[in-house]
Amino acid sequence: MPIPAEIRGQRYLSLATFRKTGVPVYTPVWFAEEGDKLYVMTNAKLGKVKRIRNNPQVKIAPCTIRGKITGPEFPASARILPNNEDAARARQAIKDKYWLARLPWLWRNSNTYIEITVR
Question: Are the beta carbons of 48 and 16 closer than 8 angstroms?
Fold first, then answer.
């Protein structure tokens, strides 16, 4: 399914991952769009990565920098990318969108990339 118009071109994305109990955890994230996929960078040690490993079903919505949801939520599925050319493509897409992502010392711990597909 293509990226919804409400998400396309936004600066921030609310990514809801789910605990084992089913309780959602909302996190505002930077994201990049490429084709019909969204890409997010993060640290492998953070909870959202663990929650995605346990349950790849997520919800996404446009939001503010503080995480206030500003539009409709969409069901999606997330996949942690292996450290190969897929991750390199995701890294480049994020760097192209956010100039702060180009500063290596600021994002040295962001070593994991997540691919999100809207259902």
Answer: no
- CATH number of the domain bearing residue 50: 2.30.110.10
Domain membership of residue 104 as a residue range: 13-118
| pLDDT tens, per residue, the chain with 119 residues | 899 999 999 999 999 999 999 999 999 999 999 999 999 999 999 999 999 999 999 999 999 999 999 999 999 999 999 988 888 899 889 888 887 777 776 666 788 999 999 99
pTM score, whole prediction:
0.91
Q: Is residue 8 part of a domain?
A: no
- Residues sharing a CB contact under 8 Å with residue 24, sequence separation 6 or more, in sequence order: 16, 17, 18, 59
> Is 28 among the domain residues?
yes
